[in-house]
């Protein structure tokens, strides 16, 4: 069977770039082109590139400059960089008073931290939404460090530790400062979190959280409603929550001995349980972000037990997965080492890890929403409305 696309006003006699067959149906839209993306693309071998730059080239820049890149499609010069940081500081400073008070009424330890993230974003939107996509995006990006710090300390039952924001610091540094961390510990956290933050900012247009956020935004919902939806999409274990699952997996393994790891992995496969930290929907080689994080680990925590396990998994697992012809990508993904690094720098609870992923992705998703809203000479992309084909629904009438 083949299906004629029904894409309304876009139907034309232009060159066919993809044809859809029955096998594509109910496949999670896998590989089906649905739009264009100006912020990033994912090469199946070389991984994600932000506006053309391999992410590894950007990993040691200031996080604000990478956000500027995603929004403006070029890196800033030094004046623009200073101006952009100033704007973020200004907007971060003007968080509406009491915007996050709702978090004080949630029970510490309740729900998942991703629930808190989504609620917090909605609360900020309820406190102030301008309706201007750029302004709302910049406000959200600027205020995320404070939301993150409040989630960590309020949900963790330590509200008294929260320090007043210092928006003159960079986004990541401000978060670490608000947590009450200082000196060497803060320096290590800043180094790892900024790197992590840049690596996770964007991953093309079709990953579930970005796609969901853009779909909601296409109906002209607010930036806050769109991003909160995106964070909910990210919270599933098949998407962002895989970084939590991966550290929990490493904790269960409990040894960096290659033979014991091999035994463990084979037993998991035999029991049909997932092997976390490997495989990807798009990539067909090792995710360069995995390699970059492993390299960062050798700099910041070479002797950490969980890091050593992640490193050993990277060697031991691919040959085992390659024995299974159905596994199209037996290579490490970004989640393999990220949890062990976060643990090593002091974040001991894996259930918080996806909030870091979400925080980072806010910038990429906002930039993509802005691009979609500016498309077609400012008319924006049309509201998302893919077609579903009726199945098992014979025509019926009540007698
Ligand atoms: C990722 O960062 O790897 C993603 O968001 C997952 C994907 O691209 O589908």
Tell me what the structure shows.
With 399 residues, the chain is an all-alpha fold. The chain has two domains: 47-240 and 357-378, Citrate Synthase, domain 1, CATH 1.10.580.10; 251-344, Orthogonal Bundle (Cytochrome p450-Terp, domain 2), CATH 1.10.230.10. Helices cover 53% and strands 3% of the residues. The protein has helices at 55-58, 63-72, 78-93, 101-104, 113-127, 133-155, 171-179, 183-199, 208-218, 223-234, 242-253, 258-270, 288-300, 305-322, 335-344, 353-378, and strands at 40-43, 47-50, 53-54. A three-stranded antiparallel sheet has the order 1-2-3. A hairpin with a 2-residue loop joins strand 2 and strand 3 (53-54). Helix 5 packs across helix 6 (133-155). It is globular. The two termini are 34 Å apart. Mean pLDDT is 96; it is low at 1-7. The structure holds D-malate (MLT). D-malate binds next to loops.
Keywords:
3 strands; 53% helix; 3% strand; disordered N terminus; mainly alpha; 2 domains; Cytochrome p450-Terp, domain 2; 399 residues; 3-stranded antiparallel β-sheet
Outline the secondary-structure elements.
Blueprint: E1 40-43, E2 47-50, E3 53-54, H1 55-58, H2 63-72, H3 78-93, H4 101-104, H5 113-127, H6 133-155, H7 171-179, H8 183-199, H9 208-218, H10 223-234, H11 242-253, H12 258-270, H13 288-300, H14 305-322, H15 335-344, H16 353-378
Antiparallel strand pairs: 1-2, 2-3
